[in-house]
Structures are given as structure tokens and as C-alpha cells.
UniProtKB/TrEMBL annotation:
Residues 29-116 form the Pyridoxamine 5'-phosphate oxidase N-terminal domain. This is Pyridoxamine 5'-phosphate oxidase family protein. Gene3D superfamilies: Electron Transport, Fmn-binding Protein, Chain A (2.30.110.10). Keywords: Oxidoreductase.
């Protein structure tokens, strides 16, 4: 698993786009796995600090319990709709996947009223429209960066 900083070092342009999108939109969608393996989506917020990507939740929230049981997760950042006449004006969507590792707060003490998770990144995807093509930039840990174009 890669820290956000390690991802930035391996794919700086994609990391810059992903970070701008994540910073521009406060609310994101977090996907976790329930006990039975079915997906759960929840709203979440993220932050960047010390080369790491962080998310949290209120104490006992089902998304936190999901992550404690199975740390695999994904985050989806949506963007505003493009101008109808110009699909290329769409900023695109950013998705990332990885594992959420619960940690103590900044003082090294578990918080009595919330959960804090550091995100270890395994995949980042930016999907957008350029002209008449769908363009997908993907980074996978160990495989590097790839661009896919579809008409």
C-alpha cells in the first residue's frame, strides 16, 4: 500500500488533479463492505496532512465499524455537471481505492468521540471527456500510470 506522498511521487500530475478535486469538493462518497460482504456507501470528508490522506467518522458510525472489520474501501469525488453544449468542460470524476488504517489522533491518544483513519492508496482513477473521447487516467500500485481513450 502507498501513502498519498508515495502516490504523488510516482504519478505527480494525476495526484495533483486528484488532490485539487478532493480539496474542491468537501463531501465525498465512501464505499465500505458490510459484514455480509455487500457494499455500503456513506458520505465522508477527507483531509491531507503530513503526506497522508485522512478520513474520520463519529464514534460507532457504521462506516467506521465496517472499516475496522474490513479496511478495504473506495472514495468517489464527483464534480459539477458540464455545460450541456460542451462535455469537455466537465472536470471529471476522481475515484481511489485502498485500505483505511485506524490510528490514534495527533496526540497519540485514541479519541473518545470519533474514529480517525489514514488511507493507504492502491488505485486512483480520473475520468473525463476531451473532445469526443472519454479519457481515463489510472494509477495502480506496482503497475504505474496508464491512459485509456474511448470514443
Amino acid at each position: 500500500m502507498a501513502s498519498w506522498q508515495e502516490f504523488e511521487e510516482q504519478a505527480p500530475e494525476l495526484a495533483g488533479v486528484a488532490r485539487r478535486q478532493m480539496d474542491a469538493y468537501r463531501h465525498k462518497v465512501l464505499a465500505t463492505l458490510r459484514k455480509d460482504g455487500s457494499p455500503r456507501v456513506s458520505g465522508t470528508e477527507t483531509s491531507f496532512r503530513d503526506g497522508e490522506l485522512w478520513t474520520g467518522s463519529m464514534l460507532g458510525a457504521v462506516k467506521a465499524l465496517d472499516l475496522r472489520r474490513d479496511p478495504r474501501m473506495a472514495i468517489h469525488v464527483t464534480a459539477r455537471d458540464p455545460e450541456e453544449a460542451d462535455p469537455s468542460s466537465w472536470e471529471g470524476d476522481v475515484k481511489l481505492a485502498g485500505r483505511a488504517v485506524e490510528v490514534a489522533d495527533e496526540g497519540g491518544v485514541p479519541s473518545p468521540d470519533s474514529h480517525l483513519f489514514r488511507i493507504e492508496v492502491t488505485e486512483v482513477v480520473w475520468t473525463r471527456v476531451e473532445g469526443d473521447e472519454l479519457v481515463i487516467d489510472t494509477w495502480h500500485e506496482g503497475a504505474g500510470l496508464r491512459r485509456i481513450r474511448r470514443k
